Amino acid sequence: MNKPDLSSFGPDYVRAIAPYQAGKPIAEVAREFGLDEAAIVKLASNENPFGVPDSSRAAMAAAAAELGRYPDANGFALKAALAERYQVPADWITLGNGSNDILEIAAHAFVAAGQSVLYSQYSFAVYALATQGVGARAIVVPASDYGHDLDAMLAAIADDTRLIFIANPNNPTGTFIPAARIQAFLDQVPRHVVVVLDEAYNEYLDAEHQFESADWVRNYPNLMVSRTFSKAYGLAGLRVGFAIAQPALTDLMNRIRQPFNVNSLAQAAAIAALNDKAFLARGAANNRAGYRQFVEAFDELGLEYVPSFGNFVLVRVGAEPDAGARVNLALLKLGVIVRPVGNYGLPNWLRVSIGLPAENAVFIGALKKVLG
Predict the structure, then answer these.
(1) Which of 119, 284, 326, 339 has its CB 3.0 to 4.6 Å from that of 127, i.e. a possible disulfide?
(2) Could you read off the pLDDT of 32-50 as tens digits, one per residue?
């Protein structure tokens, strides 16, 4: 029997996709370098260093009794809690298996093969993956100071553009766009173009930068606000995200959304975490202190970094093109996991998540050793 030609399977645009590369798990690094798992520090995936809030642990324990049954496919209780929190009708909310799921659903719901999707250089890798996954054409607008150039993005909108992704704060660079600039942008975007405002790191913003973009959805029928429970709420392993938009958009999203895409434990944990103000405040305080800890060390080492509004910092670790990969490997051998960002076109930079003070100190000590 002749072997099948694997290149004949699937459309070209799917075969062209480079799979998403997640941060290395602790167990993998321990196996690869012969290290003790307990001594490894992971600052690669922008996870909450405090882990799951106690309120969510208790809610999951209570929900475990019903795991033999399917979860609520429509997430009634979670949607009700979100509707109360953001003061929107429940049918304005779409639940996702993490906010990545929301981004993928949006691409499938609003973009046809051959149409265009617009996003910024140095923005979240999933925007490119979602675009490729539907056979759409990417319009990548050059960044300004490692962040979004909204004027250039407006100018780049094409006749066939159907979707725009904006990350605020942006991952992996940490840049932030003030509210007034985003509103001015939304005022000028054609109403047939959907704008996804991806706010995965919103809860880490200081009070003077906070604004409630969910309120804008009432005035912009083409706006979708995406949020996640994976970062500040500490539920990364449960995969819970959601979007807020007017029913014309959520109706299409729910036609694409897979049934039972948010499991029972995840729904219970998210409801509990949503209003756990003490947990959020503790995480925000730790993040502010950790950011100062990082930038003071980078200043001492004479390293360039991008001022960040998230729970991570992008730092340039050398002038040579392979500096990021070289320093990353050296850090791995010392039991410190960070994130190289060569796949973003930033080969001599690393993205480092803010951890607990002791974890940050281990990273700083290892970095000083590697850089000599």
Answers:
(1) 119
(2) 889 899 999 999 999 999 9
